[in-house]
Amino acid sequence: MALDHDIEKAASLLQAGDVVAMPTETVYGLAASIASEAGLRKIFAIKERPFFDPLIVHIATWVEKDRVVSQWPAAAEYLAKAFWPGPLTFVLPKHRSINPLITSGLETVAVRMPAHPTARALIEATGSPLAAPSANKFGKTSPTKADHVRRGFADENLFVLDGGSAEVGLESTVIRFNLHEGKTVVEILRPGGVTQEQLEECLQKWGEPFVLARAESNASPGHGEHHYMPNIPLLIIDQESSTLKQNLRDRICEDFLLEKNVRGVELWLDQNPKIAARALYQKMREASDSGASFLYVIRKSAQIGGLWEAIWDRLSRAASRTYSG
Ligand code: AMP
Ligand code: MG
Predict the structure, then answer these.
(1) Rounded distance, CA 302 to CA 317, Å?
(2) pTM surpassing 0.85?
(3) Which of 94, 174, 176 most suits a substitution to test ligand 1, by most atoms within 8 Å of the C-beta?
């Protein structure tokens, strides 16, 4: 948890229309007050983020949602009670006061209540919900430590609240709601820290008819095919064995115009997906900085379901190519 003094300073900066970096349990965010157009513009400017990629609004208390959304369906109420504060984001019709910069001009807005005590204290001290995307340049690997943010924005005079290593290590799960033939349709726009299985189990207890499904890829604006990219090529290798064969190594070097026998490093994933998720972005950074020429990750067929879905979603977007070994 950051010091009170630092939280007060960050809140003053936000009130004055500046941006600050804040820890959350998913990844570090680059925050601006939703009441400050200057702050919102600065997020897009320093992240080099295109305006078509909407921001998530972070709230600290239950009542604040009414300043952000204009509808609050029963399914949202039920899921929020189960998973907030936590890594679950709802896309809902926006409140009329929400600045179109936040929503990329859409009629819907994304909202979440983070669990990290520093993020919550900052929202409360600012007196306003905060819009915050991940605190990295657009398309790059997300930050899970304060130092990742400092290095990513070394040229900016960016105030960074240090809240330690992000506990989840991956972005939130984003869902939206529809009604179809009397059933609530819950669509997963982006897999993340709350798994499909957890949502399913929770909705079963709700007692109302529902359908839970993964949305078609790219249903979510900004969640493009290439994202989270490290500084060297990342390859996914679908195989059961744990070693990279020489002929595949040669092929990678050929495909990426690398000298034969340059160094490739393995991005090794823990068997426990919770631990793998927490370490993922840090490992991608370490490998990028290791002097190796490429990075590879072996995908085993058993690594499916649960948190693996979010892990492979991020790795697929970060990867330059997938090979079958
Ligand atoms: P991040 O950059 O991790 O904060 O992610 C924000 C993501 O949330 C965006 O890139 C979108 O994929 C999703 N999102 C935010 N607002 C909306 C919205 N109104 N409709 C659909 N997806 C949204
Ligand atoms: Mg991001």
Answers:
(1) 20
(2) yes
(3) 174
